[in-house]
């Protein structure tokens, strides 16, 4: 925004104070005097107008007439832009005659009247060069002041722009901080509307999420989610009609609609204020729409509002795209885990359900030991998959009901390493690998496959180890009944600090009743796997 020029009256007092007279102010565009000291008492000689125009063009003070002892000094007044006004003063030069007769004659020669001569007699004389230097300094000072004022205005404008920019960046920053996979879409959408309402001077906002899959686990997830803030002029159905009427859907694109909107549009949507719509889009996938209605401080929306809305729409679009991709991967992981656990059960029907029970008991133990949500998820998957290596063990050995020979036992022991090799290329199951490999290690180092001791054994493997032993001892087998509780408890107590981490055994006894209930529950693998994969 250009700086406002100071009024002409701003310069007159300075001129008066410095030169001891208020000079004529000549408007060079109109060739007329617009202000001046009445004591000069005469009209400006007409040929001075042309001389003043020249001074205005050159922009520096100059003497435009000289009649000893009088000097006429023209000083351009540097308002902003091309100079239009020039101040003209008549001065007595130092060293010139002082006789009133001589002054009167000089005045007459210059075209000034006798009243001017009388007044000039009382004026102190100026050294000519000093007079010019003072005028030059004055013009320079005015120019500097004008520049400072202009810069000040620019700084103020810039400060406002920076303030707006800061608000916008701050909104985008808040939004990106909340773009976590686990973030609930609806909460994020509501928060985004609130932040936009704080940042943009709009009357109302609307946000539509099209993708039902983006709304995890909700009944009727295929219907669009339509959220508004402020007094939105359309409802969900109206918004769909509006998008269609604006022809922004195929392909999805941003649009600013400022008045006058087309008569067709206003006929369908009476009183529709100016608006901006932006798609939530990622690549070719459309996930929803964002719209703002009615500018609070202007008749129209401009590029700054549109650009912010486009950025927010793009960020939300990318987030929705990531979310869809993540859920696809989680579904895939769920299918893999389901396939593997089914394969283990099919391989060893005598222990059917073992993996599932171990998973549930291990989660209960891990919870009792203070594990966080992520560790609980890992321990659950680890429980389901800990014996996946049995897929590679000989059926006859696996299903043998009698005592195993040393060689057969050595063969069975391979299931930990086989399991590790089966899963090691599945990046999403990376946290499960230490449990699969080390769930048969013993606290005193007597376990397998590596004979790790104490703290060397991965913590979640120590938990699964206790759950595994509990289920192996407590479950019925076709060839034997499950061990009585009393005996099982004694074995676990006796093995604390030798076979198992005593902290895990202690946790077992703290929640023993809960664990027995968990292990006795009917087959619940499918919903639990689904749940865990969604939370992974
Ligand atoms: Fe095992
Ligand atoms: Fe096992």
Overall residue-averaged pLDDT value: 84
Q: Spell the H/E element sequence.
A: HEEHEEEHHHHEEHEHEEHHHHHHHHHHHH
Global outline: elongated
- The parts where pLDDT drops under 50 for at least 5 residues are 213-220, 529-536
Number of domains: 3
Fourth-level CATH superfamily of the largest domain: Hypothetical protein af1432
CATH first level of the largest domain: Mainly Alpha
Strand order, largest beta sheet: 2-1-5-4-3
* Biggest beta sheet attributes: 5 strands, antiparallel
Bound molecules: fe (ii) ion
Helix count equals 20
Q: Which structural class fits the helix and strand makeup?
A: alpha+beta
If you compute it from the alpha carbons, what radius of gyration comes out, rounded to the nearest whole angstrom?
45 Å
Beta-strand percentage range: 5-15%
Q: How do the helices and strands line up, and which of them pair or pack?
A:
Layout: H1 12-19, E1 24-27, E2 32-35, H2 47-58, E3 62-67, E4 70-76, E5 85-92, H3 100-110, H4 114-121, H5 128-177, H6 185-199, E6 202-209, E7 225-230, H7 236-246, E8 255-257, H8 263-268, E9 275-282, E10 285-295, H9 303-347, H10 354-368, H11 373-385, H12 395-398, H13 406-413, H14 415-423, H15 433-438, H16 459-474, H17 485-495, H18 502-510, H19 512-520, H20 525-535
Antiparallel strand pairs: 1-2, 1-5, 3-4, 4-5, 6-7, 6-10, 8-9, 9-10
Helix pairs in contact: 3-4, 5-6, 5-9, 9-20, 10-11, 10-16, 10-19, 11-16, 11-20, 17-18
This protein binds fe (ii) ion (2 copies).
